[in-house]
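Re: duplicated header lines in exported structure tokens

Our pipeline writes sequence and tokens for each protein into one text file. With two proteins the header for the second block appears twice in some exports. Here is an export where it did not happen, for reference. First protein block:
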Amino acid sequence: MKIKRRKRNFLITIFSTSDIAFLLLIFIMLVSLINYRKEVKIEYPEAKTALRTQAEKNLEVWVDKNGGIYINGDSADYLELEYRIADLYQNAPDTRVHIIADRSTPYEKINSILEVFQILQYRVVSFVVKTDE
């Protein structure tokens, strides 16, 4: 007895491929919009005029209202701040350092941070404030 083999035609529908591509595109767009910058919750001081700088080449030193220091969102102390600034001065001396302090931070805390910059003779420092715009 002879058994006949049937030819099977496999069809792959391409209708769902466009849906998958669309969902993949949405996923990639959402992931690329995520901001990985760490921020410390502070209340910005206000200023009448401000100068805008490039955010890509900045080192951010955050100071909370209790005087805690954060370098790019990570907790630090004065010694670590000194090491990071000295390393920054050797590797990229044109990098701008932004000091972002809470409005109610005591001036003594900010002054002690500025003394670290003064000892290391680092002069590319900015204070970040909130403008009236």
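Second protein block, exported in the same file:
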Amino acid sequence: MSEMNKSREDGETTIFKKIIDGEIPAEIVYQDDLCLAFHDVSPQAPIHVLLIPKKEIVNVAGFSQDDTHLAGHLMLTVDKVAKLLNIENGYRVVANCGADGGQSVDHLHLHILAGRALAWPPG
């Protein structure tokens, strides 16, 4: 298995797993049986929320065929979160994958960015 899509079987507990388990507080926006959304502690836009699956998946390359329902659920939940936050003029969804993709936590997370016009290309 490549480093980019390694499983969480390495025994390391990520900060996001600690948030899921309630060991670290977070400003939670939305939660259901499969995922959790919370405000990023280092926002890159006026609205910056992270949406994470409760299942420990390293990144989008770590999805398996068994995760088809979860992947769809995450994407449908993005719009639920946007509506909860009263985002009206659009938003960007980003999933960083691997070191070169800018991923800093080895737990899949979708960035929901809004509240200002977002430039393209992103960086």
